Amino acid sequence: MDKLTKSLEKYLYSIYKLSNEKTKITPKDIGSILGFNAASTLEGIKALQKKGLIEYKPYKGVIILDSGKKYAKMIEQRRNTTALFLEKFLLVEKKDMPDALDSIEYHLNDFLLERFNYFIDFLNFCPCSAPKWIEGFRQYLQYGEMTDKCAKCIEYMMENGKKPNCLGCNISE
Questions:
Q1: Per residue in 16-26, is it b (16+ CB within 10 Å) or e — as a string?
Q2: pLDDT digit string (tens) for 3-38?
Q3: Which residues does residue 15 pair with via DSSP β-bridges, in sequence order?
Q4: What is the pLDDT of residues 119-162, one digit of tens each?
Q5: Nearest-angstrom CA–CA distance, 149 and 138
Q6: What dihedral do alpha carbons 48, 50, 52, 56 form, nearest 10°?
Q7: Nearest-CA neighbor of 89 among 111, 116, 66, 115?
Q8: Among 19, 40, 45, 137, whose Cα sits 20 to 30 Å from the Cα of 66?
Q9: CB contact at 8 A, 53 and 68
Q10: In 8-165, beta strands by DSSP E
């Protein structure tokens, strides 16, 4: 299956989500979720139908086909992986997540998505409860400065001719 445009992915994913909530999905339901007018919504529905992802019959509604569900599940997986990465490592708050996802998730290629998954898996299995740099980054975001421990580590490592890194930092606060 060819990759859909960002707009068609939004239509398909909305239909998929609605199909889990209700039995009859109307173009009005889809348009209200996406904020699109009736003409645009109908155009998107017809494009998805031409691609064999949904079936639409006026007055009967929209039905997502198995091929549409399969594609929508790929979209959902990409969204979930991207959201988890943004939340855990870039510390994006839930309230900012929809806009952040909209701006990045469609543009991730398979290679980057796979790397996000591997990185998340690695850190989930890593014996360290949380990397030291995450807390340092959290403080930097919140206060615009490094933790005292990070500053001491950098100073210590530079005095000893080493490149600062969290792995070699044994500075106690």
A1: bebbeeeeebb
A2: 899 999 999 999 999 999 998 999 999 999 999 998
A3: none
A4: 888 877 776 656 677 777 888 888 888 777 777 777 877 788 87
A5: 13
A6: 70
A7: 116
A8: 40
A9: yes
A10: 54-57, 61-64
Q: Are strands 61-64 and 54-57 parallel, antiparallel or unpaired?
A: antiparallel
- Extract the runs of DSSP E, i.e. beta strands, from the chain: 54-57, 61-64
Mean pLDDT of the chain: 86
- CA–CA separation, 31 and 15 (whole Å): 10
The structure tokens listed for 130 are 């949380």
Spatial CB neighbours of 53, under 8 Å, sequence gap ≥ 6: 12, 64, 65, 67, 68, 71
Q: Which amino acid is at 143?
A: Y
Helix, strand or coil for residue 120?
Answer: helix
Give per-residue pLDDT as tens, 50-70.
Answer: 999 999 999 999 999 999 999
- pTM to 2 decimal places: 0.76
Instruction: Give which of 132, 130, 129 is closest to 146, Cα–Cα.
Output: 132
